[in-house]
Design the sequence.
């Protein structure tokens, strides 16, 4: 990777509801005051950043995955396609081959192994990406079509769009899906630094520990932001100390933040404590960029 | 036997805290299932003993027999997931990228690739602090939450309910709207949606309710922290009533939730306004379900 | 008429399995002979993916005229079954096969 390529910062959390969206949107808006910034919402099952980023929609693009389509004329009904499909996405029902798009992993096995080319690969809409722009802030979000079950192909696609279209923007913030399963692994792929957002409660700690385990296994450089500090107990802080994980900032628990947030507003300009936390995070980001 | 599934769409609404409270109220009358396997938390409230554990396998994984491999590279060429790479002259497989489609196995001219079951996590059957049986699980890092583990947790809970003649299964559902949620819905008698009055709360509620409607399962809704934004709470109430969803309760913002959690307790084991509301909801639910 | 039930057990007193794709058993009643045929679906139940379509494929091979089940197949499997000219009745939760059959006969089950 050359030093000209964007610095990619992932914002993740072991569990949902810790403040990942709050941090992503406010950090993006804050950073864009100083330099062009891209925010990417990769939580494709439940994208929410757009509710807070009040930017005009520029354009929308459909996103496709590759799936086989049955060509009845060419088919000799040998049934090989249904036998090779590990996902039961291709099923032979008598004289009909049915393809179930949402189950298909796009491995191409049925299509390429078909002796008569009766399953050519075509595009199938799995979701869409929306592009927003407001001053120095560029924002894109991808949303899975309801009923589509696989988030990973859309996450990968969104990654490559960010890479190709926004290569000129130096800082990319990626709001990742919650959890520790494959969507998170896909979302944090090729990122330079991961910010794990947690809250100071036993639930928060439990999920942070899982997320830390994931990041270590992936060999990621990461730090922790504690949201709603003062709300629970000190176990998260103690854990970070013990594990030598940097706590890069804390956002205090204030009812006012929750109230503003609930109405879809950004809070960094009205709440000094949030602004302070963002300043600290910005310094860390700067440092990571310089070191690269 | 009846099964109530608690869902939220988005995280952080208090779903697990409320499910834990239901579990304590149900006592030994119910079997508990934690289907939020991605970030299982209920064990923090119910102190299960992890008495029985078993490995869980889901899907398959390609394995290269290096003695047979001739480095022809067909596998790497055919694999759409970029799972194969050349390292020091031999092909290696990245298990995190392999989706187990088996195409490489079919096309390998040397028969050097086989598919093996993929270990994806662990399933536990425990006794909780209130003496009920709880089925829960831990997904391995980066493993795919395909819904199969959720189905496994649920099936075990249902079997145990039959075996032990319990009338109820209480299920902490998965977040999101994808495959795991669909699995956690299978066989449900009733769904309790826990939401909060934020723009994202309403947005996610609409999406999850759409999924449940497809399955024609009756559902009710609890608005947690309703006083954070009364206007948004009204909007949610409106959405609930115009979509045939039972209104169950509004719970005020209550720091007792976090306090209780920090002491590894559920809200119904503390003295708080929320306690009474949740007890009432539980009474309504059991009346609805067991009749 | 051949009537298929998704069932948790193998007898006439067994309960309907609410699940379609991951049903334990498929039980088929032949109305002419009053014989029950039982198909074990446990292999499909343990599939990581596509249990619905796999069970639909099985249904195709069994060719019942009527299917009685609980929640009903999801969108995916329902699409598959539509091709089969099969009448699908749902919401037979918590009924035994016998009760579900009687409900179907007196028209109180919901048709999909």
Sequence:
């Amino acid at each position: 990777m050359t030093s000209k390529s964007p610095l990619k910062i992932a914002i993740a959390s072991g569990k949902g509801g810790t403040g990942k969206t709050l941090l992503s949107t406010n950090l993006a808006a804050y950073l864009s005051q100083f330099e062009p910034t891209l925010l990417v919402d990769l939580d494709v099952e439940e994208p929410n950043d757009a509710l807070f980023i009040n930017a005009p929609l520029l354009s929308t693009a459909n996103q496709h995955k590759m799936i086989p389509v049955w060509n009845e004329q060419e088919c000799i009904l040998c049934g090989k396609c249904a036998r090779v499909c590990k996902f039961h996405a291709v099923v032979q029902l008598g004289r009909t081959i049915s393809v179930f798009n949402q189950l298909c992993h796009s491995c191409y096995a049925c299509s390429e192994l078909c002796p008569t080319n009766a399953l050519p690969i075509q595009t199938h809409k799995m979701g869409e990406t929306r592009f927003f722009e407001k001053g120095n802030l560029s924002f894109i979000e991808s949303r899975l079509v309801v009923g589509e079950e696989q988030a990973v192909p859309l996450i990968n696609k969104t990654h490559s769009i960010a890479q190709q279209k926004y290569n000129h923007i130096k800082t990319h913030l990626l709001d990742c899906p919650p959890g520790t399963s494959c969507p998170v692994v896909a979302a944090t792929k090729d990122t330079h630094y991961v910010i794990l957002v947690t809250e100071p409660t036993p639930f928060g700690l439990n999920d942070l520990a899982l997320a830390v385990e994931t990041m270590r296994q992936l060999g990621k450089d990461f730090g922790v932001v504690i949201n709603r500090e003062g709300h629970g107990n000190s176990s998260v802080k103690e854990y970070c100390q013990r594990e030598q994980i940097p706590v890069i900032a804390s956002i205090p628990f204030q009812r006012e933040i929750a109230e503003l947030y609930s109405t879809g507003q950004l809070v960094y300009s009205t709440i000094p404590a949030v602004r302070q936390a963002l300043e600290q995070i910005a310094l860390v980001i700067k440092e990571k960029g310089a070191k690269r | 036997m009846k099964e109530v599934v608690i869902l939220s769409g988005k995280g952080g609404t208090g779903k697990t805290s409320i499910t834990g409270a239901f579990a304590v109220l149900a006592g030994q009358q119910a079997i508990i299932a934690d289907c939020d396997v991605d970030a299982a938390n209920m064990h923090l409230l119910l102190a299960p003993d992890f008495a029985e554990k078993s490995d869980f396998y889901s899907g398959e994984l390609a394995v290269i027999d290096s003695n047979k491999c001739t480095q022809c590279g067909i596998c790497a060429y055919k694999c759409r997931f970029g799972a194969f790479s050349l390292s020091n002259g031999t092909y290696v497989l990245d298990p995190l990228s392999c989706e187990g489609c088996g195409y490489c196995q079919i096309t390998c001219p040397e028969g050097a690739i086989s598919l093996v079951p993929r270990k994806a996590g662990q399933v536990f059957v425990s006794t909780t602090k209130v003496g009920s049986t709880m089925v829960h699980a831990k997904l391995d890092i980066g493993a795919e939450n395909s819904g199969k583990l959720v189905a496994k947790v649920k099936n075990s809970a249902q079997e145990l309910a039959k075996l032990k003649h319990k009338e109820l299964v209480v299920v902490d559902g998965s977040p999101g709207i994808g495959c795991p949620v669909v699995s956690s819905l299978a066989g449900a008698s009733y769904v309790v949606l826990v939401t909060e009055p934020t723009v994202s709360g309403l947005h996610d509620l609409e999406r999850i309710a759409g999924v449940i409607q497809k399955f024609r399962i009756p559902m009710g809704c609890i608005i947690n922290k309703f006083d954070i934004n009364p206007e948004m709470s009204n909007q949610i109430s409106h959405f609930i009533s115009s979509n045939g969803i039972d209104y169950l309760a509004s719970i005020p913002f209550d720091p007792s939730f976090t306090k209780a959690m920090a002491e590894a307790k559920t809200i119904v084991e503390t003295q708080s306004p929320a306690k009474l509301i949740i007890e009432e909801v539980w009474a309504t639910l059991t009346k609805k379900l067991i009749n | 008429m051949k009537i298929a039930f998704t069932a948790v057990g193998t007898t006439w007193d067994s309960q309907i399995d609410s699940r379609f794709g991951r049903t334990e058993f498929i039980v088929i009643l032949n109305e002419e002979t009053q014989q029950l045929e039982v198909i074990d679906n446990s292999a499909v139940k343990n599939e990581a993916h596509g249990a619905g379509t796999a069970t639909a494929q099985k249904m195709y091979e069994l060719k019942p005229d009527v299917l009685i089940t609980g929640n009903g197949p999801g969108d995916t499997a329902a699409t598959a079954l539509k091709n089969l000219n099969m009448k699908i009745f749902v919401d037979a939760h918590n009924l035994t096969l016998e009760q579900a059959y009687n409900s179907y006969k007196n028209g109180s089950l919901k048709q999909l």
